[in-house]
Amino acid sequence: MAKTALVVGASGIVGSATTALLRERGWNVHALARRPVDLPGVDPVAADLQDAEATAAALAALNPDAVFITTWLRQDSEAENIRVNGAMVRNLLDALPRPTGPRHVALVTGLKHYLGPFEAYGQGVLPQTPFREEQGRLDVENFYYAQEDALFAAAARDGFSWSVHRPHTVIGLAVGNAMNMGTTLAVYATLCREAGRPFLFPGSQAQWSRLTDMTDARLLASHMLWAADTDAAHDQAFNVVNGDVFRWQWMWSRIADWFGVEAVPFDGTVRPLEQQMAEDAGPWRDIALREGLAEPRLDRLASPWHTDADLGRPIEVVTDMSKSRRLGFTGYQPTDDAFFALFERLRAERLIP
Question: Which residues are part of the catalytic machinery?
């Protein structure tokens, strides 16, 4: 019989990629979101994880073989991030009936596990790169840690296996997502081409000239499914990146070439996208109306604040994948190809011209 999965945050970058892969592999998929979208062959589940009673009612009849938690809600402070996002994981796992057979729960967090939360991002004493899973937690409050603790407590209570997946910046498609570098850069490049503006790197010297890596949403989905199906990967935390490393001074030119704009060499001046794109809502709406695009709202496509946070780091960020490799995960995705595949899909779905 086909296995059954519950994908939490199914409309997001990671959740939608996970849902697609599960369907491809023959799983029955329940897709949970606050506002579910209709997807072929997927059972939509509407629930707000901040509402414990409503979540319990929505999930009372489900007994999934695997649960994939791919969602979070950004708050105004880290204290609120901890309160809200920790409660969301607790409410979800409290709402599910106790498993009557094997169950695996995968939680997606990220490299802020090693870099610190938004309020203290890249500050203080950080682990050496490449980041390795055994480096553990920083001595600072972090909503990722709160999510993990809620997962660990529920697993001890209910007897399911778990895995934690820590991607770097994720490349994938979603509209209205809070952390979306790939689409943000696609929109920015389109605006630069339209107005004849220079395609200026918005980040730091460290990110321009030192090594980094990223994570394709499709590879992350594959990694989570591998962990769910691999006994040796149970009750483990994993880094998840594409497997290649690059410097932005190379990748910036690759992206510029794809869009037919000129990549301006970085001159040492940080020019955040939040500033560069501050007046672009009107120009984007004009482009969308002229080209018949599906989304005229710039704020639904671009998240300049998050791209600025990633590209503005003062340190090199590279990630070790040895733990997964030793246990048999061999997935690999060149990052430039991941960007190009996303850009092609954005065009195909009429999100960029």
Answer: 112, 144
User: How does pLDDT run across 34-57, given as a tens digit for each residue?
Assistant: 888 777 789 999 999 999 999 999
| Helix, strand and coil percent figures for the chain, each rounded to 5 | 45, 15, 40
Residue 165 near residue 234 (C-beta atoms within 8 A): no
The residue type found at 349 is E
User: Do 9 and 46 form a contact (C-beta atoms < 8 A)?
Assistant: no
User: Can you list the pairs that 71-77 forms with residues at least 24 positions away whose Cβ atoms lie under 8 Å?
Assistant: 71/8, 71/9, 71/12, 71/15, 71/33, 72/9, 72/143, 72/147, 74/178, 77/119
Q: Kind of pairing, strands 66-69 and 4-8?
A: parallel
- Tracing tokens 């995705």 back to the chain, one arrives at 333
Cα separation of 216 and 224, whole Å? 13
Strand 263-264 vs strand 199-200: parallel, antiparallel, or unpaired? parallel
pTM tops 0.90: yes
Task: Answer yes or no: are the C-beta atoms of 45 and 52 closer than 8 Å.
Answer: no
